[in-house]
Amino acid sequence: MTLSIAVLGSGGKMGFRVTRKLVDAGYDVRAVEIGEAGRARLETAGIRAVSAEEGVPGAAVVVLALPDNIIGKVSRELSPMLAAGTMLLILDAAAPYADDLPKDRPDLTYFVGHPCHPPLFNDETEWDARHDYHGGIAKQSIVCALMQGPEAHYALGEEVCRAMWSPIIRAHRVSVEQLAILEPGLSEMVAMPFVDTMVEAVEECARKYDIPREAAMDFLIGHLNVEIAMWFGFSPKVPSDAALRLMRFAKGVVVKEDWRDALTPAKVREASELIVRS
User: Fold this and answer.
1) 239: which DSSP letter?
2) DSSP for 67-85?
3) Alpha carbons 203 and 38: distance in angstroms, whole number
4) How much of the chain is helix, strand and coil, in % rounded to 5?
5) Tens digits of residue pLDDT in 35-72
6) How far is 163 from 167, CA to CA, in rounded Å?
7) Which residues is 264 bridged to in the sheet?
8) How far apart are CA 173 and CA 195, in angstroms?
9) Gap between the Cα atoms of 264 and 191, Å rounded
10) Beta carbons of 231 and 237 less than 8 angstroms apart
11) What structural domains and CATH numbers belong to the chain?
12) Does pTM top 0.70 for this prediction?
């Protein structure tokens, strides 16, 4: 029997990508979408949009491809339609870690999955794959967590996640808290601020010091390529002694000493609650 999967938000940016992947994989997909633009996007792909009342009842898995700040509200509205044993599959750890899922349904399975996105250093050779930064064409890894439900359901959740975000390099199993430490912690509270600061630094070079912006961009992107390769072990780590001394000096200028607090469960929970309450 073909597994039935309802995807809420199936016409959105993430929802549309995962819906097409699940359709291509041969699942019985119910594409739940209420927005006109999303319904039109589905129609262009030959996928019929349905209401929640039509698509959710009887589905073995319900994927919530929705903004984090409405997942709690929508999941509570869906609760009366969900039979015992149904899996709610959430695509981000924020709402689950902020304890924003129905608390009165211990008979449901809560599963969280998130893509890692294609790695900077990979073996892709086709143009489309080499320029796929989000995933779906290029290979990527995924991270999965079983929050509640029978252990046997972990394999089912990983199976659906592998289909949604294929092609897959590997799947990592973590806890919901560990997934939240990875995102929003590692990716959005540590990596993204550094990336944003680097863009601001390029603009500062151009605006304040009259360096051609293209020169600053070429210089930074090239150095990022070699520095990331060295520090993350993709090439031998052979910076000069002077560069290492300067790095240690500069850390005291541009990095707060308590930056590791961004990865603590307390700070990550605070961030998750900020996301879902916004």
Assistant:
1) -
2) -HHHHHHHHHHHGGGPPTT
3) 36
4) 50, 15, 35
5) 999 999 999 999 999 999 999 999 999 999 999 999 99
6) 8
7) none
8) 27
9) 15
10) yes
11) 4-174 (3.40.50.720), 182-277 (1.10.3640.10)
12) yes
Contacts with 242 (C-beta within 8 Å, 6 or more apart), sequence order: none
Output the CA torsion sign for 156, 159, 165, 170.
positive
Backbone angles phi, psi at 17, to 5 degrees: -65, -45
Cα–Cα distances (Å) from 15 to 150, 157, 274, in that order, read 26, 17, 23
Tokens in use for 68? Answer: 């984090």
Residue 75's nearest CA partner among 39, 46, 109 is 109
* Weakly modelled stretches of the chain, pLDDT under 70: none
Burial 223-239 (b: 16+ CB within 10 A, else e): eeeeeeeeeeeeeeeee
Q: Which residue has the tokens 């064409």?
A: 137
Helices (H) and strands (E) in the chain, counts: 12, 8
Q: Look over the chain and give the mean of its residue pLDDT values, rounded to a whole number.
A: 96
